[in-house]
Amino acid sequence: MSSLPSSKQISNLDGKAQKLFDLSYDATNQCVQCGYCLPACPTYESMGKESASPRGRINLVKMAAEGKIDIQQDLAEPIDLCLGCRACEVACPVGVPYGHILESAKEVIAEKQAEEKQFPFGDKVKSILLSSVFPYPKRLRFVGNLTRFYQSSRLNKVIRKGKIIDKISEPMAQMEKILPLLEAPAKRNKWGTTIPAKGETKASVAFFAGCIMDAMMYRTNRLTIELLTSIGCEVIIPKTQNCCGALHAHQGMMKQAKEMAKRNIEAFERSGADYYINNAGGCGAMLREYDHLLVDDASWYERAKEFVNKSRDISEMLVQYGPLPFKKEWQGMITYQDSCHLRNVQGVHQEPRLLLKSIPGATFIEMEGSDRCCASGGIYNLLHFEESMKILDAKMENVKKTKAATIVTANPGCLLQMRLGTERQGTSDQVQTLHLVEVLAEACELQ
Amino acid sequence: MEKHVLEEIKQIVSEERIFLNLAERYSYSYDASFGEYLPEIAVQPISAEEISQLVKLANKYRIPVYPRGAATSLSGGPLPVKGGMVLDMTRLNKKLVIDRENLLAIVSPGVITADIHKKAEEAGLFYPPDPSSSNVSTIGGNLLENSSGPKGLKYGTTKEYVIGLEVVTPTGEIIHTGGKTVKNVTGYDLTRLIVGSEGTLGIVTEAILRLIPKPQARKTLLASFDRLVDSGHAITHILSAGVLPSAMELMDNACIRAVENFSPSGLPLDAEALIIVEVDGHPTALKEEIKRCESICLQAGATNVRVAQNEEERMSIWKARKMVSPAITQIGPTKISEDATVPRSQIPAMMERLKEIRETYQLNLVVFGHAGDGNLHPNIITDKRNIEEMKRVEDAVSEIFEAAVSLGGTLSGEHGIGTLKAPYMEMELGKDGLMMMKKIKEAWDPHNILNPGKIFPEHGQTKVVLTS
């Protein structure tokens, strides 16, 4: 059986295949199919087949771009099952831009689905959230406030007791249990304000609040700002910032992602700050790839590059301008789960560990496989619940071996996922899951 | 695939391990070499019993069967060139037992080679074969291709470490060869026949491997030479001085430039060749040995010799070598990787021939490799979409093989023959030599079921074809 494409297949590329060809074909051809990415891939490990590996996915994108397989029928599922953790990029000896190939495929698949109007139910919800909620900070804040009301009204206890959400959807019920307890809205720092440094001002930084962080984990944002001021940073919260656009880019909505990037670049340029600080690995990765995102836009590319140069994760900033004013001894062992996008895309993995090890009294223990994805994957865990839980449950076995009482993460998605892991393992009353900032703030007695 | 055949396959293997849709099948259409062939079906067996039944069924319906490990092959070993059924062996990976008393490892074929290294080391033991893909490749693939890596010079190749096998034959019988004893002269040595047979004579379902005590320490040096021929002399002089390094690696100027361009490591850009020498063994003996290697290199005309003073410096020397593969792929998207091997004394002559071939065909031909055992890796970096250049590559590849054979060497040291080197088999073996191999194949596999289209040239095929 010969597999060589007939000339008919190549000349008859439909519009979408042609677009995929233009966007990604050269990149897919950089892959030499050595397979060095296989051991790094969490879905290859859990699903155990080539189509669930980076090498397999890159090949399928290439096949689709050559018109040998159908974008919707053959390519969509293997691409959809990728977590996007990008550990394969670090493992790749030839530097194949997997993230770029993945997003190109997602973009074309999303367009094809829109054309054929084939939205599975989950996709409809996703699409409404992405186009009508995430781009609007006020709407998201409203969702956050609603959640706070839900939690403080004791309504949640009634609903949990009656297993009401379980009856609608198991994944949703599991997620409801792990929602962070929210602070009263009155404690929010106002956007557009500047919070002065404590003591001498060493640097002026602009803070990226993030959409989900701002709505649902506001306390972490507030503590981030307090840690920054405690090491001599003046903190500006640019008023017209918005969502980083990562969720959109990961779902193939590139146009919206680009619009959001431009609004953020404008907002942060106006702050005049030395650095732009974020505290969510996933958002940070997106912010730091704005130059790739806007590479075809001559009027924005240079500005995007400057934006990228100034962007930092909070942990980098705290290491550079520290030490932190620690005030109390930490009790118990701490372990750290990397945020894939912080580690694999931003290359930040030493700083959080250095910070945790610097806490007086703390015993830091490295977990086996801490650099491997927890399978939160943005909203992967909602869309592919079973696949995600398989990877998470395996990870929780490694957590157990560390005997740590605190799991630390540096990204909201990972945080909720790891908390879900302890919930599923039945250890959530002994093991707490916290954001790096929360742990550092507590050791500094910031409330 | 016909429906009733499929029904019978489903009686043998549960449905979630059977792949029929186009995306899944395309995912088993390639390896790390060249070409793409769509199988009709891919199956993931989990026991020798399942494989035996599948192979019997394949004989009944004359379906080609292609065993596949991690598909890191550089010679096309697992490519389903005649369609049929791919057996993805990666799920047959449950057994990895270290037997300390007998210095053995007993392993399933789907086990990753690096996991054997790790387990053996935990027990204070050592499994020397170490192909550069060992973090990914399966032991089954290593055995069938007899791929060995840089330590062959001192420790021998993979086949020296395999003493027993469980094999499904091409007609579906399960047989055992060899055993747990190092000495065994009972009958023909089928173990050695299977190892390196590239999946044409059987599918390994379990292997017994020899382990040796782990060397206590190692020392490494990097020497640069202005003239290639001097580096060749340094290599032969070290060996004739009674030092047996555990690894001796060579990089030519094109490799040095590629590495420096890709990831600057402070290598001398004007050097015509670099060699890395590593010795291992007892720490006090090592001090003496590395000193001798250093002075031999200098006597042979090395312009600079760097002996690693600690583990960090040692790693940085090896990093330069490990960067070669990624670095050279930056030159172009298609890499034709050869492993022609010559007697050690002929390395300078072979290097000279390779240089001529590069100039004649105007190609990006770079050379690195395991110089201590004469196993060079000439790599041509090209672009398979450039038809005109690919024609030149075809000619250059033919000449590389001719050069190796005429110098008393061989087509392949460790990558295997597969699809790419099959046309040259007669050149090395002669008509009668090749015929004896064919007779073995025909006796074992009367219906030509296992990995057809490999090793043996198709009728009238005398040259590799890389263009379609």
Short account of what is shown:
The complex is a heterodimer of chains A (447) and B (468). Chain A is of the alpha/beta class.
Characterise the protein shown here.
The complex is a heterodimer of chains A (447) and B (468). Chain A has 447 residues and is an alpha/beta fold. In chain A, 57% of the residues lie in helices and 7% in strands. Chain A has helices at residues 7-11, 15-29, 42-47, 54-65, 71-80, 87-91, 98-116, 121-133, 137-152, 155-161, 164-168, 170-178, 211-216, 218-230, 246-250, 254-271, 281-287, 290-293, 298-310, 314-321, 340-345, 350-357, 380-383, 385-402, 412-425, 436-443; strands at 194-195, 203-207, 233-236, 275-278, 311-313, 333-336, 363-364, 406-409, 432-435. A 5-stranded mixed β-sheet of chain A has the order 1-3-2-4-5. Chain A has a 4-stranded parallel β-sheet with strand order 7-6-8-9, sandwiched between helices. In chain A, strand 8 (406-409), helix 25 and strand 9 (432-435) form a beta-alpha-beta unit. In chain A, helix 4 packs across helix 7, helix 16 packs across helix 19 and helix 24 (385-402) crosses helix 25. Chain B has 468 residues and is of the alpha+beta class. Chain B is 36% helix and 20% strand. In chain B, strand 17 (364-370) and strand 18 form a beta hairpin. Chain B starts with a helix and ends in a 24-residue tail after the last helix. At the A-B interface, helix 4 and helix 5 of A face helix 2 and helix 12 of B.
